[in-house]
Amino acid sequence: MAEAAPQPLALPSGLLELCALLGAPRDSLRGPEQVAQRKGVKSLSSLDPEVLSVFVPPFVSKEDGQTTGASCVLLSKPRRRSLRKKREKPKPEPWKGLPGGPREPDSEDISIPNGVDLLALPQLCFPGGVCVASEPKEDCVHFLVLTDVCGNRTYGVVAQYYRPLHDEHCFYNGKSHWEPCRLSAAGCFVPFAVCVVSRFPYYTALKDCLSCLLTHLKLCKDFEVDNHIKDFAAKLSLIPSPPPGPLHLEADGLILINIDNGSITYSSDDGIDVPDIPLLAAQTFMQRVQSLQLHHELDLAHLGSITDLNEGRACRRAWQQTLNRQIQQMTLQLLVSIFREVKNHLNYEHRVFNSEEFLKTRAPGDQEFYKQVLETYMFHSFLKARLSRRLDAFAQMDLSTQSEEDRINGMLLSPRRPTIEKMASRKASASHTTHRRMVVSMPNLQDIAPPELPPRNSSLRKVDTGDCRSSSTVLNVSPTTTYTFKLPEIHFPLVGQCVQAYYCDCVSLLSKAMSFLAPESSVLLARYFYLRGLVHLMQGQLLGALLDFQSLYKTDVRIFPADLVKRTVDSMSAPERAQAEQTPELRRLISEVMDKAGEAPKADDRVKNFELPKKHMQLDDFVKRVQESGIVKDIGTIHRLFEALTVGHQKQIDPETFRDFYTCWKETEAEAQEVVLPPSVMEHLDKNECVYKLSSSVKTNRGVGKIAMTQKRLFLLTEGRPGYVEISTFRNIEEVRSTTVAFLVLRIPTLKIKMVSKKEVFEANLKTECDLWHLMVKEMWAGKKLADDHKDPQYVQQALTHVLLMDAVVGTLQSPGAIYAASKLSYFDKMKNEMPMAVPKTTAETLKHKINPSAGEIFPQAVDVLLYTPGHLDPAEKVEDAHPKLWCALNEGKVTVFDASSWTIYQHCFKVGTSKLNCMVMAEQNQVWVGSEDSVIYIINIHSMSCNKQLTDHRSSVTDLVVQDTAEAPREVYSCSVDGTVLAWNVSTLRVTSRFQLPSGGLSSIRLHNGRLWCCTGNSIVVVSVNGFPRQELKIDENLGGISTSFLGFQLMPEQEQLWAACAGYDDIYIWSLKDLAASPERVPLQDCSEINCMIRVKKQIWVGGTGLSQGKSKGKIYVIDVERKTVEKELVAHTDTVKTLCSAEDRYVLSGSGREEGKIAIWKVE
How far apart are CA 1006 and CA 1025, in angstroms? Predict the structure, then answer.
């Protein structure tokens, strides 16, 4: 079968798509009416313009020394997209050969770029027609946006200028026309326009270019005009298209807002009511705008005058760029403040947005704005980006302006309530005070507390914002350096040899510029790779272009032109592709863009709006519906809720029951927005406490009032003059009982709470609420005890969720069996009673804290890798972001980052690939390298929390990374993969400096010691030089008596000159002397150990993580071994699932991550 021919490669266009000369046809100037009007009239009548000449790339033929006739088209009637261009100069005849005359047949077709309609172009270039003037006028420039039927845009810049109409030598079509002209043209000036069309909206740059062209056109002879325009167009067409920028804007309609006077203009003719922007966000924005330095001369008035013209222009450009960045940042801050709380109403797993609940939380005056915005296509795109957890500019600004409380709230499993600190910071409006109840409001996640706001004015400039508490200072925008790359000179005539010389000069200059770049200039380096790759394509050097695009892929994947690379590979002949695939880097690149492009199914990025169910629900559907509602995400909790709502019924839930439960839950939230605690009460509470439940007014043995529950305590909110009476903290409770007391002939249900530190028992006549409060207090008491025992505050948060669900279940069912149904949610109370397991003393003393990187997910996720990075890494990092961080690799390429100074989530779940992550290392101060099962090394920028660089030189799973940090040599990273490949990387250039292959394969980990690499290959540990030459080998079958096993991992102890290793299937740690690896090893037995997963060295200790028995059950277990005594000092048990990974935090703490049954991280104190 014949091989399919390669597809021709459509090269990317340069800066110029088309250049045209436009003006009035000659015959329109010959009538006697113009002769009669030519004197004494400043402006003659308007004429119809037409296209006179068109210049379209390419401007050089493939054969050397043969030009294409400038691809110039001399037009009379521009009726077709494929136009005719002349090959020969016509013989001049009187009144023939003009634009309106007939054409000779000797011509050839050329193609006009899509999106350019030559019929409409004359009217766009001369909106008022061609007006011949009796005196010259100033040159003028205007701009065009040309859109084709598919919505693709091109951009035009039009420069108009005037030339005198001479008596004998007429300027038309670049030709001399000696003719008996009836019009004595003294004092007549004819307007012409030069239009440049580009795919890029570089209006200012093209305006500057056209301005330079006009200076030449005014001085040249008439018949030279076309040649000048042709040379000008040729130069622009040879400038390679720049890499794409990060900002793309779309809009349904254009709205122009004058922020000085508040006027609004809409692009459509239809009248539209543009709603006001949310007031608080608008006021904050206006305060910041008023602080801008908008006037260049005034801002620099205190400086001396610049006497050099170029220096002055550069100074003005730098000032303008700084101002533009400040405005961009302010506008982004405005958008974040308007839409920050959208994320609180999203369900990421099912891609659902609860628009109704979101609108309910908006202020009444802002409702119309949000209603209109929520219906737009742009908001839908915004939702897609949020649900995909895209770390774009909005997400980064949201992260950088997030308050500490918001970060803490991101870890909470229970529904959020405002803290006492936030409640105290709010001023209650007098008009609302009389309607408030003693329940806490829902949170306001904006980091600006809402003040008492003045009435709205038509102009935001006129609003008095003196009382607004938000900062009005201009955002401090660090200046960015502008880099200029000067293109080489273009030589004429444009024969192939000259063009190739130009391309060679471009490559040479780009290569030279790249060689001088500092290591930290990766962003600029990526742009140079992009440009050099394009130039190589223009030269026809496809292999060189692919090598540059491969380097670009490693440097900045954001601007990687995947479609262009795919088209380049498609256009290669079989020998060319075979040659490319002989290079390992290109073989991987071709596989990425060609093979895997068709394999990956398109992700479902639809956004659904939350709707209440309309049919009966089995368990699985109920789980999905509850998760979509945003009430609870945890599957185990939802299963218990299902049991509670179906007690005594068929195991399905009807739509009415679900609607009642949802309504009860949301009504409780709505009531919470209307109340606030008195200041006399708030002063007794911690600033981070929240009130989660209030009883009705009841009689107690300490007075009459309402019982309030926070995450920490119970207290009585007394009636009359509101006061605070402490009942007990949950930690201090000794016993909770539900009983009855006699009152006349009645028995009143009463709750009794006995405290550890008090003899007096608290009694409350809760009547019908007694049984519910009994369940709730016991659950909170059990949750607090578990939290204290396990140093895990999320037990309290989970208990709060159970309590609020109990309340909603009772309110939904409203039946005699409602309390029994709610008891199905008493999870921790039952756990305390049925499985009273004490935490071992050693564990309790060593364990400091536990955190959950899977908070907010629907189920726990295994912690595969942990990495601690110290704080104050880089002077460029913001102070608030310079804290130490803990990096957690979860399943499917997810990474969660904690602030290690407060153990709060810093960045929640961004993705690097879709496969399991095996290893992480901090390669330099602003980079974390992550090795993945998909054979890629992902590089994360610590400052932006983004992954724009990928290293793809490995061919199988990357299993380990180790950093060589010496003062003499450049910083290097060694990486290994399971197929036995070891690569050395230069961190600055991201290039492989050396590579070697271990023949045995199965490479699982490496260590660097004394300039040699120690490589664990399963059945042996091989010692090699950094260039791969073998030096020593420790074979497991020769040293362990021929037993069938393999190395799981090892650690080197240089001070003791020892190698510590763990073997599969054995509960011992083996110790070899580095002086004699052939000698039999010592053993340290690990009692009750069934599996070893990881081991690290901390000071003079070895910490080993795995699985073992504790109190008769299999648990995650850590063994701490003293290196000198070779004995187990501690056995630590704090995980219900196996310990998968360990890492050290400055040798002060050790952090352990558990498997997917638990998915938590424990923080241990090192002694």
Answer: 12
Query: How many residues comprise the chain?
Result: 1167
Distance of CA 245 to the CA centre of its chain: 15
Does 692 share its domain with 772? yes
| Phi, psi dihedrals of residue 981, rounded to the nearest 5° | -80, 135
Residue 479: inside a domain: no
Residue 1038 maps to a domain:
no
pLDDT for 259 equals: 54
* Separation between Cα atoms, residue 23 and residue 52, nearest integer Å: 7
- Write b or e for each residue in 67-93: b if 16 or more Cβ atoms lie within 10 A of its Cβ, otherwise e: bbbbbbbbbbebeeeebbbbeeebeee
Rounded to whole angstroms, the Cα distance separating 1042 from 1038 reads 6
Report how many domains make up the chain. Answer: 5
How far apart, in Å, do the first and last CA atoms of the chain sit? 73
Q: Are strands 1089-1098 and 1082-1085 parallel, antiparallel or unpaired?
A: unpaired
- CA–CA separation, 904 and 853 (whole Å): 10
Helices 827-834 and 794-813 pack at an angle, to 10 degrees, of 120
In a domain, 940, yes or no: no
Per-residue confidence at 458, pLDDT binned at 50, 70, 90?
very low
**CB-based contact 781:733 (threshold 8 Å):** yes
The range of the structural domain enclosing residue 352 comes to 275-301+311-401
Residues 6+ apart with CB under 8 A from 516: none
Same domain, 240 and 383: no
Residues 289 and 246 in one domain: no
Pairing of strands 691-694, 991-997: unpaired
Among 816, 833, 850, residue at a domain's last position: 833
Tokens, residue 1113? 């059950």
Share of the chain above pLDDT 70, in %: 79
Q: Which of 52-66, 108-122, 139-153, 554-568 has the lowest mean pLDDT?
A: 52-66
> Measuring CA to CA, how many Å separate 883 from each of 167, 512, 900, 941?
79, 39, 7, 15
Residue 976: inside a domain, yes or no?
no
* Average of per-residue pLDDT across 831-854: 86
Same domain, 676 and 707: yes
pLDDT reading at 78 higher than 70 = no
Instruction: List, for residues 184-213, the tens digit of each pLDDT value.
Output: 445 688 899 999 999 888 888 899 899 999
C-beta neighbour count of 1128 within 10 angstroms? 18
Which of 401, 422, 438 is at the close of a domain? 401
Can you tell me the distance from the alpha carbon of 530 to that of 1035, in angstroms, rounded to the nearest whole number? 48
CA dist., res. 548 & res. 319, Å (int): 34
Q: 644, 809 in Cβ contact below 8 A?
A: yes
Query: In Å, what is the CA distance from 902 to each residue of 408, 687, 798, 841, 909?
Result: 9, 16, 20, 25, 18
Say if residue 222 is in the same domain as residue 282: no
Do 821 and 757 fall within a single domain? Answer: yes
Beta pairing class for 352-353 and 608-609: parallel
- Residues 576 and 626 reside in one and the same domain: no
- With 0-12 / 13-18 / 19 or more C-beta atoms within 10 angstroms meaning exposed / middle / buried, residue 884 is middle
Local confidence band at 964 (pLDDT 50, 70, 90 cut-offs)? confident
At residue 1101, does pLDDT exceed 60? yes
**How far apart, in whole angstroms, are the C-alpha atoms of residue 876 and residue 1109?**
48
Q: Are residues 530 and 557 located together in one domain of the fold?
A: yes
Domain containing residue 1150: CATH number: 2.120.10.30
Token pair, residue 501, equals 């010389």
Sign of the Cα torsion 564, 566, 572, 576 reads: positive
CATH, residue 654 = 2.30.29.30
DSSP states along 979-998 = TSEEEEEETTTTEEEEEEE-
Higher-pLDDT residue of 444 and 1102 is: 1102
Q: Residue 1039: pLDDT band by 50, 70, 90 thresholds?
A: low
